[in-house]
């Protein structure tokens, strides 16, 4: 069985633990936009990606906490190493989510995986003080959905025979991979639940969503997913970005922005060198003070992992975006990657 532990409020829980005065009231983390919120804050309607002003109106008594990324990285690495000590076959899915294959772990099949899931929860709490929800299922698709059933510290077991009772009543957006646009289109086609999606003819789905997506939707609605737990994979891209403490203007804060931009490019080059990759495509990402995002890419004739070259290519991208508005975030990305020793 596959099992993804989820830390639903990972960004917040360590900050709360570090600030005793914040244990009781509702709290949330972010600058301008909420990164995450405790369950107490969520009861007032506060949630991630919400504007700070709106959150303040919904929950004026909340305590706003800064994001401490070094602390997040530390505890993310600690919870993952705790898991691999018990179940070595683990796929990293971001700062607070992993997939684990229980199949060959001693005792992994006891009580449908519940015994091992409890052991993992206990070990994570003892090492980090963090709770986590765990979903256990025959494949990654169902395990991902199961992990959402019993937050913040529960264990949910989903068998293939549970599909009709536990999965089909859920909204189609609960399928990992069906986003807002596909969900909206399905709603216009009068398909709202996973069960209604499963009832559709595969040919009808292909006609409306294309050959690959339509076929995948049909398989997903029937709980089918043969993707293995992958412990290592080739990266598609690497990036470095930063959100500013205050909004910066490209002209009035030119020197400060230039220094930040150069530093991001140098760090990205160091990341590539450390991991043994080179890149052909360099891109930038800007988020303006109105939260709109602009991206541009530049593809070179040759591969590079050099910070100065990345800075030059990223600078060419920067000339192709409007810079009248203030900036909240600046990022640099390397794509079209290849192994340095294979080029």
Automatic annotation (TrEMBL):
Q: Please name the source species.
A: Tuber aestivum
The protein's enzyme class:
transferase
User: What Enzyme Commission number(s) appear in the record?
Assistant: 2.7.7.7
Which terms in the Gene Ontology molecular function aspect does this entry carry? damaged DNA binding; DNA-directed DNA polymerase activity; metal ion binding
Q: What is this protein called?
A: DNA polymerase kappa
Q: Which residues form the UmuC domain?
A: 20-179
Q: Which PANTHER family match?
A: DNA POLYMERASE KAPPA, DNA REPAIR POLYMERASE UMUC / TRANSFERASE FAMILY MEMBER
GO BP: DNA repair; DNA replication; error-free translesion synthesis; error-prone translesion synthesis
Q: Which family does it belong to?
A: Belongs to the DNA polymerase type-Y family.
Question: What InterPro entries is this protein classified in?
Answer: DNA/RNA_pol_sf, DNA_pol_Y-fam_lit_finger_sf, DNA_pol_Y-fam_little_finger, DNA_polymerase-Y, DNApol_IV, PolY_HhH_motif, Rev_trsase/Diguanyl_cyclase, UmuC
Swiss-Prot/TrEMBL catalytic activity: DNA(n) + a 2'-deoxyribonucleoside 5'-triphosphate = DNA(n+1) + diphosphate
Q: Which UniProt keywords apply?
A: DNA damage, DNA repair, DNA replication, DNA-directed DNA polymerase, Magnesium, Metal-binding, Nucleotidyltransferase, Transferase
UniProt GO cellular component terms: cytosol
Instruction: Kindly list any coiled-coil regions of this protein.
Output: none
């Amino acid at each position: 069985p596959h099992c993804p532990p989820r830390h639903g409020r990972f960004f917040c829980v360590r900050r709360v633990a570090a600030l005793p005065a914040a244990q009781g009231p509702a709290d949330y983390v972010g600058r301008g936009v909420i990164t995450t919120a405790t369950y107490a804050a969520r009861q007032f309607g506060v949630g991630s990606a919400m504007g700070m002003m709106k959150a303040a109106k919904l929950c004026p008594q909340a305590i706003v906490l800064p994001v401490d990324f070094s602390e997040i990285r530390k505890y993310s690495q600690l919870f993952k190493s705790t898991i691999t000590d018990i179940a070595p076959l683990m796929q990293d899915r971001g700062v607070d989510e992993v997939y684990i294959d229980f199949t060959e772990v001693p005792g992994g099949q006891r009580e449908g995986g519940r015994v091992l899931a409890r052991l993992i929860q206990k070990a994570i709490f003892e090492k980090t003080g963090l709770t986590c929800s765990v979903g256990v299922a025959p494949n990654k698709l169902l395990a991902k959905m199961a992990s959402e059933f019993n937050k913040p510290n529960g264990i949910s077991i989903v068998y293939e025979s549970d599909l009709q009772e536990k999965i089909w009543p859920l909204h189609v957006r609960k399928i990992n991979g069906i986003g807002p646009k596909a969900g909206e289109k399905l709603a216009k086609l009068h398909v709202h639940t996973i069960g209604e999606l499963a009832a559709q003819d595969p040919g009808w789905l292909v006609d409306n969503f294309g050959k690959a997506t339509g076929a995948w939707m049909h398989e997903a609605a029937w709980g089918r997913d043969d993707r293995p737990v992958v412990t290592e994979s080739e990266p598609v891209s690497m990036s470095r970005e930063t959100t500013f403490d205050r909004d910066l203007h490209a002209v009035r804060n030119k020197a400060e922005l230039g220094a930040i931009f150069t530093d991001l490019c140098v760090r990205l080059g160091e990341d590539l060198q450390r991991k043994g990759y080179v890149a052909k495509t360099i891109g930038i990402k800007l988020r303006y003070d109105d939260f709109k995002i602009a991206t541009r890419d530049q593809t070179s004739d040759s591969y590079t992992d050099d910070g100065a070259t990345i800075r030059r290519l990223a600078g060419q991208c920067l000339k192709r975006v409007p810079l009248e508005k203030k900036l909240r975030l600046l990022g640099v990305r390397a794509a079209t990657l290849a192994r340095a020793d294979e080029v």
